[in-house]
Design goal:
211 residues, alpha/beta, TIM Barrel, 6-stranded parallel beta sheet, 3-stranded parallel beta sheet, 10 helices, 41% helix, globular
Length: 211
């Protein structure tokens, strides 16, 4: 068993932007997910960087229309916990061979991160055709990812890291980009203030980037 490309394709193609969410407040998790879905962003990545991340995922998964996945997945225990929390996909910052092998025993498909053609080829040889390009801006941005397209025509990427609304347009114009990941649609100050109308507006702006 390799990466479930069909499932990832159907998930990642639902919207041009996947919000990358660092959130620890279980009480506001559903409201945040509802705001993002209302704005047109149904695919949500909740990073495993906070103590309550798994509880946040479980709450967001209750929102109608939300497709919730885990981010910052680094080991088998993270993947097992993600599966138990109801994740529908998983995202990793890297692509070590052991992680890709371990992912074969877990139901939610894994989107592993790469930074170079060598890493992308190594993942491809293990059956992975959808990859995260991370950290995108720090590694050279859209021009670098564009250069991957000709020698690696069978691979599709979700660039993440340092991307904002303006930069997202450059990535989404590339033939080998299926979507982008970004945290600009979930600003911490708006969430802290309970300004979910702002989240809806930012999500709608992002959802309109690519038809």
């Amino acid at each position: 068993m390799a990466q479930d490309a069909a499932r990832l394709h159907s998930t990642l193609s639902l919207a041009p932007v996947v919000p990358v969410i660092i959130h620890d407040d279980v009480d506001t998790a559903r409201a945040l997910a509802e705001a993002l879905v209302a704005g047109g962003l149904k695919v949500l990545e909740v990073t495993l960087r906070t103590p309550n991340a798994l509880k946040v995922i479980a709450e967001m998964a209750k929102v109608e229309g939300a497709i919730v996945g885990s981010g910052t997945v680094r080991k088998l225990d993270d993947m097992k916990a993600s599966q138990d929390a109801g994740c529908q996909f998983m995202v990793s910052p890297g692509a070590p061979v052991k992680l890709l092998e371990d992912a074969e025993a877990i139901d939610p498909p894994l989107l592993p991160g790469v930074t170079s053609p060598t890493e992308a080829m190594a993942a491809s040889l293990m059956g992975y055709s959808f990859l995260k390009f991370f950290p995108a801006e720090a590694m050279g941005g859209a021009p670098v990812l564009k250069s991957f397209a000709s020698p690696l025509p069978d691979l599709k990427f979700c660039p993440t890291g340092g991307i904002d609304l303006f930069k997202a347009k450059s990535y989404l114009a590339l033939s080998n980009v299926i979507c982008v990941g970004g945290s600009w649609v979930v600003p911490g100050d708006a969430i802290a203030a309970g300004d979910f109308d702002k989240i809806v507006a930012l999500a709608a702006e992002a959802a309109a980037l690519k038809g």
